[in-house]
Amino acid sequence: MELDLRQAIVQRVQGKEDEELTDIIEGSIDSEEMALPGLGVLFEIIWKNSTAAARKKMISVLQKQLPTGQA
After folding, report:
1. pLDDT for 23-45, tens place per residue?
2. Helix (H) or strand (E) holding 47
3. 39-53 as b/e, with b when 16 or more CB fall inside 10 Å?
4. Are the C-beta atoms of residues 28 and 39 closer than 8 Å to each other?
5. Distance separating alpha carbons of residues 4 and 54, to the nearest angstrom
6. What is the value of pTM for the model shown?
């Protein structure tokens, strides 16, 4: 049976307790770039299951945290 990347990541986090999920996410942040696809898959799940208001809030937070490009 061949798993794609999304399926492998979902299987890695399925059934985890809150603390375990937090550890996985925090362990991936500022880690090697290999962890970025995993965070992307998790963000995709969050995005797809968020309300329009929650999405707007995430976009607002992202916009505030992105560098402005001004030196």
Report:
1. 999 999 998 888 899 999 999 99
2. helix 36-48
3. eebbeeeeeeeeeee
4. yes
5. 28
6. 0.82
